[in-house]
């Protein structure tokens, strides 16, 4: 999906061991970071560019990362959140955007099943857009980035209980808006 090149301006500051460690973390987090960014950014190409920017920023500051202050997950998603905010501020785009990420289609799905799944997904996207901006942000971290409530709380400065409340209420709103379905 992504190929990461060490920027030329990094020069000799990136040792082989740092590059190897970072490459492992990149492989572990690139898909999650992309999905987080994609929940917030409408255009797929822009989301890919911003994901690359997140990892370029992370690599340039990797030697200053302190694991005792925050987990790598919290650190990288803080960079991702700030990168998205900066992009939206500069581009003057609305903070809520359509979430039109393609669903993976199984090889054994019939055209009818594909059509039903696509329609259900479009309905879910419409419901997500009805959530408030803070609810969308927390939901994108929870389900897009697959973060735990504790990580979201650390990253956003909210308490864990507030994050849990937002997730609970947003999911309840989504269920009600989607037609009261449990799953």
Write the layout of secondary structure elements.
Blueprint: H1 16-40, H2 44-61, H3 72-91, H4 111-129, H5 133-144, H6 149-156, H7 160-178
How would you characterize this protein structure?
The protein is mainly alpha-helical. The protein has 2 domains: 13-91, RNA polymerase sigma factor, region 2, helix turn helix motif (Rna Polymerase Sigma Factor, Chain: A, Orthogonal Bundle), CATH 1.10.1740; 111-178, Winged helix-like DNA-binding domain superfamily/Winged helix DNA-binding domain (Arc Repressor Mutant, subunit A, Orthogonal Bundle), CATH 1.10.10.10. 66% of the residues lie in helices and 0% in strands. It has 7 helices and no strands. It has helices at residues 16-40, 44-61, 72-91, 111-129, 133-144, 149-156, 160-178. Helix 3 packs across helix 6 and helix 6 (149-156) packs across helix 7 (160-178). The model is unreliable at 1-12 and 93-103 (pLDDT under 50).
